[in-house]
Amino acid sequence: MSDPTPDRRSAFEAEALPHLDAVYRYAYALARDRATAEDLTQDTFLQALRHWEQYRPGTNARAWLFTICRNLFLRQRERRAREEPTETAALDGLAAATQSFAAPPDAGRALFDAPELGDVIRRELDKLPTEYREVVELSDLQDQSYADIAQVLGVPLGTVKSRLFRGRRLLQEALVDYARDAGLLPPPGSDT
Amino acid sequence: MSDCQDVIRQLWEYLDGELPAGATEDIRGHLAACAHCNPQYEFQLRFLEALVKGYVAREVPRPEFVRRLKAALDEIGDDLA
Q1: Chain A partners within 8 Å of B59 (Cβ)
Q2: What does R_g of chain A's alpha carbons equal in angstroms?
Q3: Chain B residues within an 8 Å CB radius of A108
Q4: pTM
């Protein structure tokens, strides 16, 4: 390690630490539990400080931290991969099921004015497969561009778009289903 | 000028601010005038707003965790010195 430490630490504090909340939220989106999210966040920042010389000043520090966080998460998951079934088959089925979604007429007013909507959104977001949830998280909640998300995930831009749009569609379908079950919207096919 | 199919196909990219300036202007003009596309646009816009708002109450790092993290960073800083 050849960087002068005082400069490294002050640059790190100025450029990396302000993203603590964002990294934690991203870690939570990946891990879906607080203890793992905290461990993941801590490991991310420790690794970022250790390898601070790899960060190029003036670039997107948040995206760089997300990349570290995601790599750590994947490494952890790999260790458990043999015991856990893959999500690919489920993803394919879900993706196929979301191609034809169209907002029902007047769905917006009934759905988006429901006071419990925030809780429903969080619950449904947690149910999304990781591949979709993390893209929705990065785009809609962390305000990252498609190009930055592609960099974080190490996937082509087209993959980012397809995962993002499918993830949003799945969420919308779940919200419309909820609204129908709750009587906020009429069942499909009925006239109102 | 955009037609409805093009507009709906590019709606997410339009809302995400990912389209070039010319395409953005075309779609904005189309949405202002089209009774078919405008409700779809309104729905998607309100959905994205609700998604962000719903997340505001999402978990934030606990203060004790932030203290623990900063202590760990200090320790590493000492090691690197």
Answers
A1: 24-25, 28, 34, 37
A2: 20
A3: 39, 42-43, 46
A4: 0.76
